[in-house]
## 1
Amino acid sequence: MVKMTKKMPKIPAEPEMTIASDQKEFQPGESVDEHANLEAANETLNQEEIRQQTENL
């Protein structure tokens, strides 16, 4: 049996996944700007993929 410690988070009975894209969360900088651009591109690609999957139903 595994002993629960403060380092081990409890797993919720009904886990849920959320997506957040708050680009104002980070301080300005070159690597942060690059990461924000990648997040925006991924969001656009995901929207297109979901649209395509919906059309294929």
Note: Residues 29-55 form one domain.
## 2
Amino acid sequence: MWWPGLRSRRGEGDEIHVTASSPVGYRLRFRLHDLVETPRDRVTLRSDGDLSGTATMAFAPVDAGHSTIDVTWDVEATPRWMHATERLLRPVFVLAHDAVMRRGERALNAWLTSSAARASRRRRRR
């Protein structure tokens, strides 16, 4: 997987099992399922396990060859230990989340850049 710290594997049907490793040592395991695609502009799905809720990804064209993706997660972390320690560890959870998101953003940008570069080279060779 292109996102550092995330591992995924296919389940049955549209299920994807994900393990997200935080930079401070804990892991969250969750299942993505009930994928619904709206042609050309939206994908929604459900999550259960250590992250329970829904996600929506909305796609919008910006100009020729460019789009935006707006990702909205409405999830709750469900591990009991996280709820029991939330008052004390919330700043750590926030920092860990931010670090995981930054790593994912950097990796996605690198992947998109390299994919675009490969596509450009293929077009030039034709």
Note: The longest strand covers residues 51-63.
## 3
Amino acid sequence: MEGARISLFVGIFSNRLCDDEFPATLLAELGQLGIALRLDYYGNESVTQLVEDVTQQSRP
């Protein structure tokens, strides 16, 4: 498909310091396939806001 793009989205929710490691082989394979890696980190304040937003949206 011309003009299409693919990305792997990873969302990390944490209320404290955290880390993760992606092996070089995985990153190389993603690169060879033309797949971008997108990381979103949601800290304590973001998680609290997300829960509040979802709670408000679920109310009638």
Note: Residues 38 and 44 are 20 Å apart (CA to CA).
